[in-house]
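Lecture 7, part B: from sequences to assemblies.

Below are the input chains for today's worked example.
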Amino acid sequence: MLLVGFGVVGQSFAELVVSEGAKLGRDFGLRPKIVGIVDSKGAACSPDGIDISKALDSKMSSGSLEKLGAAYRPGMTGLDAIQETDCEVVVESTPTELSKGEPGLSHVRTAMKEGRHVICTNKGPLALAMPALMELAHHNKVVFKFSGTVGGGTPVLDFAKKCLEGSDIRSLSGILNGTSNYILSKMASEGSNMKVVLAEAQKLGYAEADPTYDIGGFDTACKLVIVSNYILGTSLSLKDVQVKGITEVSNEHVDKAKAKGNTVKLIGRMEKKATVSPEEIPITHPLNVSGTFNAISFNTHPAGEITLVGKGAGGKETASSVIRDLIEIRRTFAR
Amino acid sequence: MLLVGFGVVGQSFAELVVSEGAKLGRDFGLRPKIVGIVDSKGAACSPDGIDISKALDSKMSSGSLEKLGAAYRPGMTGLDAIQETDCEVVVESTPTELSKGEPGLSHVRTAMKEGRHVICTNKGPLALAMPALMELAHHNKVVFKFSGTVGGGTPVLDFAKKCLEGSDIRSLSGILNGTSNYILSKMASEGSNMKVVLAEAQKLGYAEADPTYDIGGFDTACKLVIVSNYILGTSLSLKDVQVKGITEVSNEHVDKAKAKGNTVKLIGRMEKKATVSPEEIPITHPLNVSGTFNAISFNTHPAGEITLVGKGAGGKETASSVIRDLIEIRRTFAR
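Predicted structure of the full complex, as structure tokens:
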């Protein structure tokens, strides 16, 4: 396995491979060997397997993989590593970028062309080019999994595919961004001003220094594209989504909603068209989750409305999705 | 296929077989043929398949299957029908009974011994004898499915098995009875007295004339046994569950909880031991669902707490679970 991207998710995954290794071998016959790790400064490669604890230590203490000695290749890029490393699976977890989806998009494409199965936790390539990537995976007979892009460790994509068979999923709607939901929840419960809550969220690490991606609705839109394409069979890309973030939601708006027994939430919705916008929902609705929770509701026939709620982000949580994807790939191999 | 029990769930299932028939054939190669239907007064049997619309009409107009003419066998019992009918699958949906689990338990046992796959929506046999029935199914090499016993059309059992692989499920807790939840929700939102809400629920058809099974906590306990055995691998039966219903929950208790930002819910919980009792949970907790919704939370490692919310009952919803079980059996055949 080759890890391209060694940020929070990449490191959490590496930690899980160490801490859960015995269990994975015992329960699933899975013995993941990491033969390469790439970060923004270089790579570490070893056909016999990287010493994961050493890699984590090096990253922690020096911010790079330089302490891996002979295995370290300063300046080596993800693309180089994908082309030069012999492995079965490439895990792409570089940061999401939404103008061209790079470098993730090239990583995914190249890995598939090299015949590698791909697990992607980076939303950029999928938000911009999901139909083409699905096709490319099919053409190259590789498995392409991306459970970690939506819902963190909450198995949103798998749930709809594996558990709702035989039911028509007619539409879906969800709270897919923890940062926006944290801010709106605080505005509703404490009457706080958006700027104040945002500053607080940034301090707690729930919001980025540049919060546009989250509170502008783009993260929600990316996830909506992925969920809708995967579950409803649409062929959307980010440009097809009508996006409105929460920046214009006022305390007055929130209070008025409250007086009606409602609450304002940033909802990604796919019915006739794909939209992201602040909506009023009844406080008794299952989508009304607070804090950094994510939730997604499937309008199914004949089983009714079914909602899945869980932590939508977090390194360890998202890494657990990568593990599940790996189990699925292993199972596909075994057939 | 033989339907034993032709109440709300059995009839809804028969309706679904008609209305979704084309889709099931096209998408899953499934062409369910109902060769027998049994109710409390007799049976209708025909190796070429029962006319389902006629059976539904007969049941509706006369309360029995007598209008099926030559196919009708007045007085024929479920046991007789199971022994005399040549079929692949028996669907058991007679009413839940908790002292001896009959007649469901004998139906399930006999069907398995006859080499039939069994789909059971009746909680009695499972609450009382689930480990033995799992063993019997295994021994007779038949598939035993019971998705409809928990969560109605919400795929609670499948979710944990199919979507949480590779995650440890350390404990679970849930709101598993819609009637109790409806009553407690009304008490909290409107300050109404339990007796008043119960009478209202009975009028709306949400509660039975004898509400003991629901508000006494026994329905929740049955579902907890099934969920815990299936998902956590325990070998519980109903007698192992410590059960306390909602009959002693006062408006004072509800109001006090509210003042603390909490709400009182009837929770079935499996941690170190299996319990059913009214508990206070924060109003912001994902389990805080209102009305007749059901919800179940899985405490997983490392993916965190994951909650599934949906309608917990309803004929059509539960029948959709039977369809899913049938698809699963069909898939097992196909392998």
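Note for the exam: Chain B has a mean pLDDT of 95. Keep this in mind when comparing with the next example.
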